[in-house]
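REQUEST ID: PR-0412
SUBMITTED BY: lab tech R.K.
PRIORITY: routine
TASK: structure prediction, single protein chain
INPUT:
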Amino acid sequence: MLQQSDQAIDIPKFFLFGEAPQAVGERYLHLEALADRSRPNNWNIRTHAHAQLSHIFHLSSGGGAMTAEERKYVFIAPCALLIPAGVAHGFQFQPETEGRVLTISHSYLQELALRERSFAALFAAPAALALSPGTLEPSLDALSRELIWIAAGHGAAVEAHLLCILVACARSLEQASAAMDAGQGRQATLVARFREVIEGHYRDDLPLNHYAAMLGVSEKQLRTACRKLAQQPPSRLIEQRILLEAKRALLHSNMTIAEAAYYLGFSDPAYFSRFFAKATGKSPQAFRKRTGN
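STATUS: complete
OUTPUT:
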């Protein structure tokens, strides 16, 4: 719990990129202008990490790219960049990008997360959050003013402004996650509908743009959904359904190879044989012979 004292939040000398490592207090908190360290480094911050410190970068104008571990995040203001302690990160900012960097000790965040569980998700992994203008500015302005003076209730005021910032980020992260889940849900529905349409038309030799038109989406949307949800392009899903029916025809009917080819919509039995052999590694004749038919 926060002690009833104006000294509840320890604010020692700040260190970050370009300064020698040193121990931080349990409730370490610091706020500075983004340009303070970015402009002297030509707006490029090489990859580095902080074992005890997490960061919230708030950009009010400009943009750039962040590398966090193996992933690259491209961002444009207004946005917030969340960087957990221990994560190697670096930046390439657009010249004259404006914003602020809020640094918080890992131990302080752990303490706050015990009181508010949503804070734990904030720094579970790096993130770039799109923000509406004015989302964080009032709280950051208030925190900046509070950090430069000592008055009655200083510690409580600092933490109050910090909590407002963390709550705003937690809500933005939740909204982003919900939007991603909704997007995946829409894509899952699209792939399911596509399979239904395939079922009625796999023998019609339709081009992909006809399938997309029947579904009311673009070819790009259909390809994206199939690759993400089925890990295959849409053409492969069509081929798999044709192949399944081909196996059924060869195993459970008296159709000749040519008749099976025509039944499946192939105008050339030889092309059907090549298609089947490429997909299964066996010719239609060999596949049928293997089963004793």
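NOTES: The two ends are 78 Å apart (CA to CA).
REVIEWED BY: pending
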